[in-house]
Amino acid sequence: MYLTFYGLAEKPFNATPDPRFLYMTPGHREALAQLLYGTQERKGFIVLIGKVGTGKTTLLHALWQRLKEQSAISFVVNSTLSFDGILEYILADLGITSAGESRAQRLIALNNFLIKREREGQNTVLIIDEAQNLEVATLEQIRLLSNFETPTSKLLQILLVGQPELKTRLDLPELRQLKQRVGLRCHIPPLTVEETRAYIRTRLRIAGARDLGLFADSAVDRISAYARGIPRLINIVCDHCLLFGYADEKRRIDRQIVNQAIEYLEEGTRPQPKLRKLGGSRTRLVLRWSIGSFVVTFASAVAALALKSHIVPQGLIQSVRQFLVIP
Q1: Which of 21, 111, 173, 187 is the most exposed place for a label (fewest CB within 10 A)?
Q2: Residues 166 and 197: beta-carbon distance below 8 Å
Q3: What DSSP line would sit under 274-318, residue for residue?
Q4: Domain end: 166, 188, 210, which one?
Q5: Is there a domain that residue 275 lies in?
Q6: DSSP conformation class of 20
Q7: CATH of the domain at 90
Q8: Are residue 115 and residue 250 in the same domain, yes or no?
Q9: Residues 81-107: pLDDT tens digits?
Q10: 89 and 109 part of one domain
């Protein structure tokens, strides 16, 4: 809707985790470097933690892009599955067919696959997103997958990715063995104000914007304060700002538009703009529509009176004419 108005080739603030739009803050760069190091050096268990909407899934897609040529990767996105469901998902993701019906047969099939990959000098990576939702018993079973190893290296690299609740879960006494096996811990921090500004400009540039200063500094400050550095919230607010800016024919997003977008997100209704002074084409259009509605009602009353009395008072006709004259 607003793409042509703002000279964009595509939407810059989509909610999908497109790695093309990944803005690498120092925190994201460090986390990605740790993930690459941990998987390539076969550290076994790696934990990545970040608040909701900080870009964990987008970062994982970027990691997948870098690993896919040298590694077989299973990316589990449904963390509510039981362990047997996760195991079935892993086998299908890795292309392991005829694995058998029992858990033991499936584990043997997975082990044989890992050994074959190892002999070919290739790595295998298991990524489990939203891992904070995993049951304690399921996490314990996943820990046992790390027993697939040779005397010198782990055959399966396991990434547990989740919200801060994942750290709390790993601190449980019954998961102390899993906690001891974690080789690396990574964290994604929220964006600062300056990082938020660079984040918005980066996404505008990738989307083909000619004006990277489309969002005024005051608008960015307000967005950063509201979103608290969470990229997902920044995307939602910015997308609404572009929509409201387009509706108001504003080429630059200011703080007022941001406030309207935030109020809409919080309350579900957009605040009504104040009536402008006469003279603008937009104001004349609003007045013409409003008065026109009144005239239609007024004329209907005149017609009804005429039908009854067969006389149309000249005063009423003159009044209608006067109402139709709009400056």
Answers
A1: 173
A2: no
A3: PPPPBTBHHHHHHHHHHHHHHHHHHHHHHHHHHHHHS---HHHHH
A4: 188
A5: no
A6: G
A7: 3.40.50.300
A8: no
A9: 999 999 999 999 999 987 788 999 999
A10: yes
